[in-house]
Amino acid sequence: MNANSLFHLVFFVALLLAASWPLGLYMARVYQDQPCGLDRVFGPVERLLYGLCGVDARQEMDWKAYALSMVGLNALGLLAVYALQRLQGALPLNPADLPAVDPFVAFNTAVSFATNTNWQAYGGETTMSHLTQMLALTVQNFLSAATGMAVMAALIRGLARRETDRLGNFWRDVTRSVLYVLLPLSIVLSLALMWQGVPQTLEGSATAAFLEPASYDKPVLDETGRTVLDEAGKPRTEPATQAQQSIALGPVASQVAIKQLGTNGGGYYNVNSAHPFENPTPLTNLLEMLAILLIPAALCHTFGVMVGDRRQGFAVLAAMTILFAGFAFLTLQAESALNPALAGMGVESAPSLEGKELRFGVAGSALWAAVTTAASNGSVNAMHDSFTPLGGMWPMLLMQLGEVVYGGVGSGLYGMLVFAVVAVFVAGLMVGRTPEYLGKKIEPFETKMAALIILIPPFLCLIGTALAAVAGPPEAVSNPGPHGFSQMLYAFSSMGNNNGSAFAGLTASSPFWTIAGAVAMFVSRYWLIIPVLALAGSMAGKKRLQEGPGTLPTHGPIFVGLLMAVVLVVGALTFVPALALGPVAEHLALYQLK
Amino acid sequence: MFTMFAQQLKPAFLMLFWMTFLTGLAYPLAMTSAGKALFPAQASGSLILGQSGHAVPAGPAGSALIGQPFESGQYFWGRPSTTSPHAYNAGASSGSNLGPSNPALAEAVAERAAKLKAAHGDAPIPMELVTASGSGLDPHISPQATAYQVDRVSTARKLSRDSVSALVARHTQGPLWGFWGEPRVNVLELNLALDALADKE
User: Is the separation of the CB atoms in A259 and A117 below 8 Å?
Assistant: First the structure.
């Protein structure tokens, strides 16, 4: 790894930390109903929305009402996304005349976008009409992110309040998340992206003449449109020339902005942010990476302010940042290695650029891989499938840790706070005292909920992978050997933690993958949110204890170390055997070739 | 519990409806209008219009952000592309997704290297000329990869090496702020400029 790569990392982390502080303080005002500046612009819209929806936003909810509102909004959103995809052929704003989406793929996509995963079983520009991209996908990008932020706000209130069962109003939290945080940031980012070259138009495509017509081998089709095979069983081809390029366009900038800010990650185009129209320059690469981690990092400060002790927020942010920097360093290091399989062909000794875009290079691609998997974003600017074995493993492990290293908007912080509960529990066991966090006693109910939250994603990931290896369609896997196993492990790590990135050679549009994947995404989202809200409800009802000499301070370096250790140990113990079968085996095989 | 849920369905439905209106219609349409007013060229795809001296009957010569395939001696060549059915299909972006240990990757690289060697001799081949880009539409190569091809292009066009090198230098973009991103040359724009240069002389 060269000095420039390392400098990329240091520069990025410094910018992120600097930008997250003011945003964190601002969001604390948003969730505490204090004037935040933008209420002069959006205040009337906010009140109008409550009126139109018949919501009494001042009425606070207990955890069950909060959870039921969340389920209602998400369930209806899921149905709407499914319906829009199935009906798009008959609806307007479909310049490419795309037909209805396949029912399995549509179901998978509906779950995927409602759960903030944005796993793509479809190819954007060849499957979804403009209307579907806007009304179904963009809307869920906002609402699923706002859901995560609302649940996070409820958990923080649960920790901050005492002897109450009220956690806030779900509708109010969702509306304020959209109006005061997600929408303004998206508008600013959309404009910056357009300035740099990201299209934003209702046109379907532009046609350009190739400067030099391209010759290629065209597969021969029979009358039914199927490819004809030759004697060797390979598709028969005939020489053809292509003189024109049809360039797919659409309302791209508005969707890319929110997909990054809301840690959604579902791309407008098939190759996501590797596409020059989604991410045209090194500057957009920087802005989009910052957008991915900005809100999750800033929420740590919001947490500190809302519980009345900013050091608590710093401690959580420190643990996340140290883990992120470590994993990003390892990913950069692994991607800087040469691929011995490409030696001796007369090619310069340089890291492989297969699947990478030249404008980002190795550093810009590897850093993005760490960013997108640390957050539960899942958009990619290079094909992770073609990364070195270890360069693909570190992002995979970042997802498997439970998406708490910054994590998704809201979901990352509520996940990390659950790990904090486990950390004080472990510390309590070591010194033989009743554990407490922020003055709240951690009792059997909280420990059970925390264990449930921490154990569900690994369970989904490992069981899903095993099921795919045994019962999945073998032709779905596109690479031979251990890498094929890595493709399946990556897929369930991604869906079981609501990330959405992929080793994209895997064909995930078959019934097995769409349904098993949808189940994993659904369970890992809602079976986490509901215990988190139950935990919040139970915490809110407790008294706040005075700090005594036996209290473990949760703002110092010892706690930061303990928190990181708990995250790493749970992740490592669970996933090392599976990783040994995939990326580690591939690494050992590849590097003994020499 | 069930009645509690039923009570929440009405606000859930209305909230979804109005949020769809706000974030699914008003926001993207407002951004589309803003794009048209503030950045009309970029918002419609950075199309290259008004190129003279070509047999381009009408319409754009491409997009400044989207690459095109080149394989004849008189043009600079860009990244290999694995979009289907033909290279640089800007209607269906795609990478190869070949794993690092997949024998098909080594085979593809060896094949591309042999073709480049036949045209350029035995100098070490820049990595991006033998590996497919992630999007299949990457418009750029590095300055090293243009230097590798300068002799071939200037010979084929009967231009001096210096005039071609000077043209390349004019089309080279450095990293942002000197360190962020990679130095790069847009292959389509360079080749269009080559054609314009040939017309002038």
Answer: no
Q: Is the peptide bond before B85 cis (omega within 30 degrees of 0)?
A: yes
**Cα A337–Cα A343–Cα A344 angle in degrees, nearest 5:** 160
Question: For the purposes of burial, counting CB atoms within 10 Å of the CB of A431, is it exposed (0-12), middle (13-18) or buried (19 or more)?
Answer: exposed
Q: Which two tokens stand for residue A574?
A: 């669970």
Q: Which of A45, A347, A359 has its CB closest to that of B184?
A: A359
Residue A227's pLDDT is: 75
**Which regions of A135-181 does DSSP assign to beta strands (E)?**
none
Cβ of A281 within 8 Å of Cβ of B181? The answer is yes
Which of chain B's residues have a Cβ under 8 Å away from the Cβ of A187?
27, 30-31
Smallest CA–CA separation between B124 and chain A, in Å? 5
Task: Give me the interface pTM, i.e. the ipTM.
Answer: 0.94
The residue of chain B nearest to residue A127, with distances taken between CA atoms, is B92
CA distances from A249 to A13, A57, A120, A206, A344 (A): 33, 40, 19, 7, 41
Residue B53, pLDDT above cutoff 50: no
Q: Are strands A237-248 and B140-141 parallel, antiparallel or unpaired?
A: unpaired
Q: Do A242 and B86 touch (CB under 8 A)?
A: yes
What is the spatial distance between Cα B70 and Cα B88, in angstroms, rounded to a whole number? 10
Phi, psi of B36 (to 5 degrees): -60, -40
Main-chain dihedrals φ then ψ at residue A142, nearest 5 degrees? -75, -50
Q: Is A242 helix (H, G, I), strand (E, B) or coil?
A: strand
Among B182, B185, B187, the residue to mutate for chain A (most A Cβ within 10 A): B182
The three-class DSSP label of residue A500 is coil
> Are the Cβ atoms of B180 and A286 closer than 8 angstroms?
yes
Q: How far is A497 from chain B (nearest CA, A)?
A: 22
Mean model confidence pLDDT for chain B = 91
- SS3 label, residue A441: strand
pLDDT at B56 over 60: no
Q: Are residues B98 and A191, on separate chains, in Cβ contact within 8 Å?
A: no
**A388 closest CB neighbour out of B69, B100, B184:** B100
The identity of residue B148, as a single letter, is: Y
| Averaged pLDDT, groups of 10, chain A, 594 residues long | 86 96 96 91 93 91 93 94 92 87 92 89 80 91 95 94 93 96 97 96 90 86 75 80 91 94 88 95 96 96 95 96 96 94 90 95 95 93 95 95 92 93 90 87 92 92 94 90 94 92 89 92 92 94 85 90 94 90 94 70
pLDDT digit string, tens, across residues B8-18:
889 999 999 99
Closest-CA distance, B165 to chain A, in angstroms, reads: 20
Region B72-87: mean pLDDT is: 93
B-contacting residues in A 263-292 (Cβ below 8 Å): 269-271, 274-277, 280-283, 285-286
Please tell me which residue, A177 or B7, carries the higher pLDDT value: A177
How many CB atoms sit inside 10 A of residue A283's CB? 17
Nearest to A255 by CA among A115, A411, A357, A132: A132
Q: B174: distance to nearest CA of chain A, Å?
A: 10
Q: For residue A178, give the nearest of B23, B25, B97 by CB distance.
A: B23
- A550 CA: distance to closest CA in chain B (Å): 41
Q: By 3-state DSSP, what share of chain A in percent is helix, strand and coil, each rounded to 5?
A: 65, 5, 30
Tokens 């399995």 locate to A104
